[in-house]
Amino acid sequence: MYFCDKVHQLRIEAGLSQEAFANELGVPYETVARWEQGAEMPDMQTLLAIADRFGISLDALVRDGEEVSQHAGFSAQMRCRAPYEYKSRATCFGVPLVHVHLSNGTGRAAVAKGIFAIGDITLGVVALGGISAGLISFGGISLGLLLALGGIAAGLTAMGGVALGVYALGGLALGYCALGGFACAVELAVGGAASGRVAIGQVANGTHALLIHEATEAQMRAFMRAYCPDAGQWLIQLLTAACRG
């Protein structure tokens, strides 16, 4: 076991975050992150403080191969693969401008909260993560107030394998206006199979339905203008292009 593994293991077993541990030692939390990544070693005074904090000898702390805990779970293949965390000093209303928090894939998911947030689970104005939520969100599972992009996405404008939104684009799209392989909409649905008040598709089901293979682009645009007068020109052009794409 290497020092980077040891300091990470001891901190986790003590129930300390990188920030809390850094505060105890009087160092920036970024310094703790570098120790755990194996990118930097503490000075002698700090090493002594760490050893005292956890009740172990300095030799056990710094000598490679020495075990510092009875708890299992840190193999040789995991050397220095500690979670990575970066939190900017700049804040906005007390929230970090940037927060990056990534796990090593072997423990619990890392949570990031910031104006710009990147992590396993994220919450921010702009969020990127496995599970993400924000004003603008990108992730495996994505919830965005304005825009969501992900495997499963929900938001005002949603794009993904499964998309749910006012404007939805995806393999399976559900919304007020929807475009997708299978599109189901309250108002306008366009797709391979489309269902809505106004539906355009290879298979179309609706109060007003149009089959793509039976219509020209001009006819599709005219159809949408006639039965969806509130649809913007940009939306009509987009949906028409998608049908022909």
Can you describe this structure?
The chain has 245 residues and is an alpha/beta fold. It folds into 2 domains: 1-81, lambda repressor-like DNA-binding domains (434 Repressor (Amino-terminal Domain), Orthogonal Bundle); 144-244. It contains 7 helices and 7 strands. It has a 5-stranded mixed beta sheet, with helices on both faces. 39% of the residues are buried.
What distinguishing features does this structure have?
alpha/beta; 5-stranded mixed sheet; rod-shaped; 2 domains; 245 residues; 434 Repressor (Amino-terminal Domain); two-stranded antiparallel ribbon; 27% helix
| Tally of DSSP β-strands | 7
Order of helices and strands: HHHHHEEEEEEEHH
User: Which structural class is indicated by helix and strand composition?
Assistant: alpha/beta
Shape: rod-shaped
Helix content: 25-40%
Describe the protein's topology.
Blueprint (H helix, E strand, L loop, with lengths): L2 H11 L4 H8 L3 H9 L6 H11 L3 H5 L21 E4 L3 E2 L2 E2 L1 E5 L8 E85 L2 E8 L2 E4 L5 H11 L5 H12 L1
Helix pairs in contact: 2-3, 6-7
Question: In brief, what are we looking at here?
Answer:
With 245 residues, this protein is an alpha/beta fold.
